[in-house]
Write a structure and sequence with these properties.
mainly alpha, 11 helices, about 0% strand, globular
Length: about 270
């Protein structure tokens, strides 16, 4: 694989990757969209394609920690609804990686992340306007309380949305480990609160990221050199996860949603301008 080994990294480059690994742990137990910053930092130090192979085992380590922390809060009906579409997206992403260069990977993922963020902001504002209108009609306060759990996606529109986000999530997670923001935006749009959001996404990405390993090995993205670098960086994932667990209880729902969207936009812009 065309990448720098652990021994060829400068102290500054290793420190950048270590900080990105800490953000991986934080994103898994607190603000999922922060993972796009890790993605951008890895792509800044390593070749974009090679960086996905180094990042994947670190993400799996973070997923394990997140499952141990939030395993009781997963919403399995949502997971089963998403998996078929995600599998299709992973296959498409694998075919794309067989042909795409680094620039095409960065541009595609950055554009998708910004588009998804824009759609989510539009949907949330529309929901706020509808809630205020309903409150005015009923004589209740206009503050949006939000649903306590996920909305039911039994309607045709709900099924189309789940499949669309699922395919995009599978594609982006295979191409650049950037499925986190896409699925975060889906879970927000479905009305998940913090703990349900984190528990559902924890199991989702543990299963999806683990299933990607054979594809990544087959593409040459994971090898002995990348795993050696992972062995050094995984030590920074654990404190990041502990920091996220501490922080999530101190973040209210509205701020949580804003942080997820903001992190998604930052990561998308970084990929496009690099």
């Amino acid at each position: 694989m065309d990448m720098m080994t652990l021994w060829h990294l400068t102290a500054w480059e290793f420190a950048t990757l270590a900080f990105a690994a800490l953000l991986v742990g934080f994103s898994k137990t607190a603000v999922s969209g922060a993972n796009t910053v890790s993605l951008a930092l890895f792509a800044a130090v390593l070749p974009a394609r090679a960086s996905t192979g180094v990042l994947l085992p670190l993400l799996i380590a973070g997923d394990v920690l997140a499952v141990l922390t939030y395993r009781r809060h997963a919403h399995w009906p949502t997971l089963w609804r998403l998996f078929p579409a995600v599998a299709a997206g992973v296959v498409v992403g694998t075919l794309f990686l067989m042909r795409a260069d680094d620039e095409a990977v960065r541009t595609s993922i950055g554009a998708i992340l910004l588009l998804m963020a824009a759609v989510t902001v539009w949907r949330r504002r529309a929901a706020d306007r509808a809630a205020r209108a309903a409150a005015d009609t009923e004589g209740e306060p206009g503050e949006r309380s939000g649903p306590s759990g996920p909305e039911q996606a039994t309607s045709r529109a709900g099924r189309i949305k789940a499949r669309s986000y699922g395919v995009l999530g599978g594609f982006t997670t295979m191409v650049a480990n950037a499925g986190g923001p896409v699925m975060s935006l889906y879970l927000l749009s479905a009305g998940f609160r913090k703990l349900g959001f984190l528990g559902t996404s924890a199991f989702f990405f543990l299963i999806v990221n683990t299933s990607k390993v054979p594809f990544s090995v087959g593409l040459g993205l994971i090898d002995a050199e990348s795993l050696l670098l992972d062995a050094a960086l995984v030590l920074f994932v654990v404190p990041g996860a502990l920091l996220g667990k501490w922080a999530v209880g101190r973040i209210n729902q509205r701020l949580f949603e804003h942080l997820v969207i903001a992190a998604t936009v930052v990561g998308g812009v970084q990929l496009l301008v690099r």
